[in-house]
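Long-time lurker. I teach an intro course on protein structure, and each term I like to show students one example going from raw sequence to a predicted 3D structure in token notation. This year I'd like something fresh instead of my usual example. Would anyone be willing to generate the tokens for the chain below so I can use it in lecture? Attribution to the forum is fine with me.
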Amino acid sequence: MSRGTKGSDARGDRPEIAEFLDFLSKERNDSPNTVAAYGRDLTAFQSFCSEYFGERKWSWSGVDRLAIRSFMGELQRRGQSKRSAARAISALRTFYGFLAARHGLVANPAKAVRSPKLERRLPALLDRSQIDHLFEADAGRAGNAPGGPGGFGAIRDLAILEVFYGTGMRLSELAGLNLQDVDLVSDQVKVRGKGRKERILPLGSHAVKALRRYYATREGLSAGGRDPGRAPRTDARAVFLSARGRRLSARGVQHIVKGMLSKLTDGRGLKVHSLRHSFATHLLDAGADLRAVQELLGHASLSTTQIYTHTSVERLKKVYHQAHPRA
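-- Reply from a regular --
Happy to contribute to a lecture. Here you go:
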């Protein structure tokens, strides 16, 4: 065990937290948002323990269920939402699992504390007409429609949209795509999801066509068009590049997609993740097997995928009440 695990000064730093966050980022390949959120939760818990135990020295192994329940009560008093409290419990459980594996800690006091029961919110999604309008507008900007202006950015953005909706992959997975991951001959793409788990996703014909066109403009970007001397230094591995030739970050992709969604009529509440929600819901609406959708989405648990069945049922109810004369 390290010094912090045995018990350091209550006011001192706990190196296990930094070690754990490094593990999440580099070994488990968790998203930066998850790492940052868990870091905030554990730092808040460390501060709480310093007050809870007072002047006494305390250690991670000395924390019990009552201390964690008191921490949860403190979060409630601060006005934290149930979702934030549930995430804090998840952070503590994962952290104690890490301490057991790396530092030989036996007990996991967070396991005995129940997470707050959360209401399942139906995700925002695009209906079929919105999907059609979205692709028509972006195809026009990319020059696929008569009079479209084309250009590197517009052609790239259409490819991003086609890949997003065509595969249902996560934002972080799309931003992390490398050229070697995409096989346009076999119409498939390899993505690395949570925990570095790899899965193969089929690429639809529209996505393949958009990517082929984008690759041609990408090569032009590398060559500098008519003026090779002005060619930017491009990232040789990344699929999606900025105009400067660098890999588009997740935030950059998010900005692009949000811009496209914002132009839709009745597009309020739609986010980048709405494309993933729409992908899953539209598959289930068309009769796709739930297990197959689970594999496509990369969900570890089937219960995570089942929320999309609730979405489909709610949509069917809405159609029924609108159309049936005796509804």
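Some talking points for your students: The domain at 3-112 is CATH 1.10.150.130 (DNA polymerase; domain 1). The chain has two domains: 3-112, 128-323.
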